[in-house]
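In response to a reviewer's request, we include the raw inputs and outputs for one of the modeled complexes. The four entities were modeled together in a single run.
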Amino acid sequence: MEPSAYLPLREPTLFILLSLSADNKHGYAILQDVEALSDGRVELSTSTLYEALARLLDQGLIARVEGPAAADDQNPGRPRKVYRLTPSGRRVLNAEVVRLQGLVATAQQRLRAAGSC
Amino acid sequence: MEPSAYLPLREPTLFILLSLSADNKHGYAILQDVEALSDGRVELSTSTLYEALARLLDQGLIARVEGPAAADDQNPGRPRKVYRLTPSGRRVLNAEVVRLQGLVATAQQRLRAAGSC
DNA sequence: CTTTATAAGTCGCTAACCGATATATAACCA
DNA sequence: TGGTTATATATCGGTTAGCGACTTATAAAG
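The model returned the following structure tokens for the whole complex.
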């Protein structure tokens, strides 16, 4: 599995993986976490979210966590589906962060060069 | 003009603006510069390049530099079209780099949090 | 018993990218 | 002379990911 084949990630996808990197979550929780994580800047539409989850599952970057979400499944709404980041998913996420770091470094060099003459 | 309305930029678009931030260039020169700038990682297809240039022109983020490219227009190929970054384009580029910096910072925090427990 | 919050899913559209292909021009060289 | 290569711009068809709008389902609150 070559992480670079999955890059670059678009912003919503990056935030979804990043959200799952801390704890396993169900879709709606990801939605809220991403909004908080991005300081309110990124508000995923539910279509973006659920389509991305299906795609990431298909790619093996995330996986379903089976089982009836503890015993306390007395929450409103449809039954939750909990996801986790797979090792592949974590590698892709790390690779993307490394890519972004390089990008920022390159950009800053260029912008400095442009400003200094 | 609200720079954030143009964000996030996709990777090819970011590199095109970044390439023009240093010097004015024609399309083909951008193509080669982006490849060098990205250490060979990003090879724009000509369709991506010229469609992006048309779009960026339309958005006012770049502009044509008129005039027959100095007197020495004895280069092969069709006549060159030289572009420059507009002030708006530079603001958008700067905003994008700031966005990316924030993204990297957020991601590193999250990844540290995930690793430490 | 209607509204609100939670939760998942679907549809049609669009923007941006990409591979393939076309066209034009000058230089090189056999 | 005429074929190849490098330079240079342009267009077409297809794909992907995101997004707005909408739908369905469930429990609690009022």
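As requested, we also summarize the result in words. Residues 87-115 of chain B form the longest helix (29 residues). The longest strand of chain B covers residues 62-65.
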